[in-house]
Automatic annotation (TrEMBL):
Keywords attached to this entry: NADP, Oxidoreductase
Highest taxon listed in the record's lineage: Eukaryota
Protein name: NmrA-like domain-containing protein
Domain NmrA-like, first and last residues per copy: 5-301
Single Gene Ontology MF annotation: oxidoreductase activity
CDD domains: PCBER_SDR_a
Gene3D superfamilies, alphabetized: NAD(P)-binding Rossmann-like Domain, UDP-galactose 4-epimerase, domain 1
Length: 319
């Protein structure tokens, strides 16, 4: 391994994004460590991931976000910390921040965000503190004077895209489609492995220190009207379009119990309020990943349609 590469600790390596982050870190020749809970080793799927990463060179450290002493020992071995735990564990990063402050050796902390910018969300009255918890973590990091990079990659292609943004579905419709609002608000989709490649490039980049990095590549920014148009072109058929007004969607969000309504909240945020694209990256003081790292080849949405997602969609039938 190259000695000038920062040593990276990744928390959450058995998750979908955490696994890709660990692979990208190892592929970039960073000495890479993963903090792993004991329970992960008895989970068949997670233990297979850990075995794969270990074979590629990942150093495993047993521990959890609840144990500050173990965290402290792990932090003393690294330069960079990337947290990729689930949204349910966002507040558990408070102990990690305390340990980072005590360790005094961390050059950069990337907290668990990897979605829309929590400071720019316009759905805080609906999201059961989903975004405010992430904003709270940001404020603690800044108050403690910990060097950071926040990464906002918006939507993963594996989440809403396979259903064509149809709540409760796993496959796209072939007869009629619901379109939220007027269908013109644009959202951003990214593959997890592409996000990981961009993230790992930020860790030793002075330009991204104490900055927000947004993933907003031109080939991955689409409205619902555009997504439906692409799908209609693929299947050679026009769908019946049912437009769901903002008021109708808000009523459905309020009538659906939490947490089942969170998918609707995310759709409202992205495709009605336009939370991912209503502001310009430049005016916000942030940086855009594909402009920073033009050498990274990312999967465009059109390529996603014609590859693994399209294959999934093409094999489905209306039930």
């Amino acid at each position: 391994m190259e000695s000038n590469k920062s040593k990276i600790l990744i928390i959450g390596v058995t998750g979908r994004l955490g696994f890709e982050l660990a692979k990208a870190s190892l592929n970039s020749s960073h000495p890479t460590f993963g903090l792993v809970r004991d329970s992960a080793f008895s989970d068949t799927h997670k233990s297979q991931k850990l075995h794969t990463l270990s074979e590629e060179g990942l150093t495993l450290i047993k521990g959890s976000l609840q144990d500050e002493d173990i965290l402290l020992e792990a932090l003393k071995q690294v330069d960079i910390v990337i947290c990729a735990v689930s949204s349910k564990q966002v507040h558990e990063q408070k102990i990690l921040i305390s340990a980072i402050k005590r360790a005094g050796c961390i050059k950069r902390f990337l907290p668990s965000e990897f979605g829309a910018d929590p400071d720019r969300s316009q759905v805080s009255n609906l999201d059961h503190n989903f975004y405010s918890r992430k904003s709270e973590i940001r404020r603690i990091i800044e108050a403690e004077g910990i060097p950071y990079t926040y990464v906002c990659c918006n939507l993963f292609t594996s989440v809403l895209l396979p259903s064509l943004v149809q709540p409760g579905r796993k496959a796209p419709p072939r007869d009629e489609v619901s379109i939220f609002g007027d269908g013109t608000a644009k959202a951003v989709f990214m593959n997890e492995n592409d996000v990981a490649a961009f993230v790992i490039n930020t860790v030793d980049d002075a330009r991204t220190l104490n900055k927000v990095v947004y993933m907003r590549p031109r080939g991955n920014v689409y409205s619902m009207n555009e997504l439906v148009g692409i799908w209609e072109g693929k299947i050679g058929k026009m769908l019946k379009k049912i437009y769901i007004t903002e008021d109708e969607l808000l009523k459905k969000i309020r009538d659906t119990p939490y947490p089942e309504n969170m998918e609707l909240v995310f759709i409202y945020s992205a495709f009605v309020k336009g939370d991912q694209t209503y502001f310009s990256v430049e005016s916000s003081g942030g940086l855009e990943g594909t402009q920073l790292y033009p050498q990274i080849t990312y999967t465009t949405l059109q390529r996603s349609y014609s590859s693994e997602i399209m294959q999934c969609w093409a094999s489905t039938t209306e039930h």
